[in-house]
Amino acid sequence: MEHVPDQTINRLPVYLRCLTRARDQGLRVVNSLQLSIMVGTNAAQVRKDLSYLGELGTRGIGYDVDSLMAQISGVLGLTEKRRVAIVGYGRLGGSLLGYKGFAERGFDIVGIFDADPAKAGRAADLRGSVATGLTVRSMDHLEDDLRELGVDIVILTTPAEVAQEVAERVAAGGVRAILNFAPLRLRLPDDVRVKEVDVSVDLQVLSFHLG
Amino acid sequence: MEHVPDQTINRLPVYLRCLTRARDQGLRVVNSLQLSIMVGTNAAQVRKDLSYLGELGTRGIGYDVDSLMAQISGVLGLTEKRRVAIVGYGRLGGSLLGYKGFAERGFDIVGIFDADPAKAGRAADLRGSVATGLTVRSMDHLEDDLRELGVDIVILTTPAEVAQEVAERVAAGGVRAILNFAPLRLRLPDDVRVKEVDVSVDLQVLSFHLG
DNA sequence: GTGTGTGAATTACTTCACAGCC
DNA sequence: GGCTGTGAAGTAATTCACACAC
Q1: To the nearest whole angstrom, how far is the Cα of B168 from the nearest Cα of chain A?
Q2: Which helix (H) or strand (E) holds B147?
Q3: Average pLDDT, chain B
Q4: Could you tell me the pTM of the whole model?
Q5: Which domains does chain B have, with CATH numbers?
């Protein structure tokens, strides 16, 4: 596994999702064409992508679903659980906390932070849903708390105005990966990986294609 | 404006966002280097991107902020308001409804749909916030309602199990662009543009880079 | 025969570097 | 002098096409 292209990395989680569905449907083996239809590309792309991870298939047969899933999970670092904190507990933070897909994919929400003193100290419950067992923390000791909790990834959902400042504190807390929902580009040291999520950007791209 | 690369299109909304901030700071003119720092690329990239839209700058000077914003808005089709409907009014749908960034960028939420009879007919209010003036519609007449409302883009936030079926009805309602939050790939006719948003995919990509 | 793995060919995107205009 | 616009050069990603393993 010399060097895997970025675009291939972006597709690996999608392969994983499709493989999960294939397995749930009772499939034990898939070939590149079947997979390509599920993910919406072509067979050559699938074979090339997977070949970066090693010789995972069997010629004349295809790919064993279980072992392929294990391989991809390994490459993505999902074999051990990742520790995630949500920083900014507004509507969006709350809706992310309630998303079941995280736990299923090995992401454990281990901390929730909000600067609002009215929220801090209260239990972070999903209304009408199971209690999470988590308490919303104030941001007074954000750096120390993140370090103590051993957080790998922060989901940042603060207002844009404070996002840069908070992100710097997150980085100071030893966190090296941030999923940023605040609509601005964070300026952080190169060793901190940032991925931007902005629904309005996606809408604008769709708008372009409408002509 | 012959053919604009996809990647350039993806960056246009980001330029727009940075230009808005620049203008709010009182800047009337920016050059490619300044812009590149704001968006996090390099000056050559900025010039190349913008050159696809026409000769928008002035040599020796830079780009006029206002007219550049107008140009990009035009290309993205944001000069007239886009009509958006949210289909699936759960936690996520509700949190998207409350996002101020939509209206600011010319996206009007004109309809909200949910299959749950307990929600249908009730006002779609943001708890403790301004009323939206919208009523949650049942999905009984989804196709007709979408057509009647003149919806350009649907934000799909239904559970994965029904997403494909609902998406087909959305397409049948004449909608040609879907922002899909359900974690599966929709199979739709080629004339319907789909953009996937999946936070767990983004987390998995970050997880890879953690090593 | 069937379907993978992969060099080679193609296509797409980015960066360079400089002519041209203000 | 300063900065854009753009061909040309350089990289990266995708697709082709076929040898090879089962």
Answers
A1: 17
A2: helix B142-149
A3: 94
A4: 0.94
A5: 6-74 (1.10.10.10), 82-201 (3.40.50.720)
